[in-house]
Amino acid sequence: MKNFGTFFVVTFFLYFGQITADVKPPETFETKSLTLRHPVESDMQIVFDKYTSVLVVSTYLPWAPHTNIDQTIQRYLIEQGKDGLFCWVIHEKTTGNFVGMATMAVKQEEASSKYEIFVACGFIPDTWGNGYAKELLQFGIEWFKKSDVQKLCTTTHRENSYMINILNASEMVLEATDVSTKVADDTLENRLYYSIEKEATE
């Protein structure tokens, strides 16, 4: 059975102290088939029932299934906006149905003005095979091309063959095959690391 979870990583440079103004993402945005917005309390029950409590959803994501709704509220509602952590609920445009979650965590390298933005996304089993992971990846690449960001990266679990096939067919290039890192409270291990980088300018 497939699991369509991945981590998108954006690497770019900022001056110290500008993380809130320069990194804070929009509350809502959309792709061809999906709409994404920050979660509210009324979202938490369906997020728990269809996403965070489902074992297969977390197969390649860095957290265990939630056993109670308070864990979901803590992860996606209480922590929203704290320490560079932002979350979105994902809905289908055509039906308005909840289909998944996305999370962005901003990580600053020590003694450096470089920031990495890790964005995780995952979808409920009912939607697997609809091409949503591919659509979000392509959306990220197109956004990157129009932005001032110099490098767009992603990691995915080395056993997640579905996502690996999508990445291999994209414009991203495999850089490393055994990456481990910590993002917010999550430890990412056994990851493949892909990137796309713009040519340096004077």
Provide the descriptors you would attach to this structure in a database record.
single chain; 202 residues; alpha+beta; Aminopeptidase; 9-stranded antiparallel sheet; 9 strands; 23% helix
Judged by helices, strands and strand pairing, the structural class is alpha+beta
Can you count the beta strands? Answer: 9
- Give the end-to-end Cα distance, rounded to a whole number of Å: 48 Å
Task: Give the total of domains.
Answer: 1
Text of the CATH class? Alpha Beta
Arithmetic mean pLDDT: 79
Biggest sheet architecture: 9 strands, antiparallel
List the strand order in the largest sheet.
2-3-4-5-6-1-7-9-8
Helical segment tally? 5
For the record, the CATH architecture stands as 3-Layer(aba) Sandwich
Order of helices and strands: EHEEHHEEEHEHEE
Q: What proportion of the residues is helical, as a percent range? A: 10-25%
Task: Give a description of the structure.
With 202 residues, the chain is of the alpha+beta class. It has helices at 19-23, 44-52, 69-78, 132-146, 161-168, and strands at residues 6-13, 28-30, 34-37, 85-92, 98-108, 114-123, 151-157, 173-183, 186-197. The protein has a single domain (6-197), classed as Gcn5-related N-acetyltransferase (GNAT) (Aminopeptidase), CATH 3.40.630. The protein contains 5 helices and 9 strands.
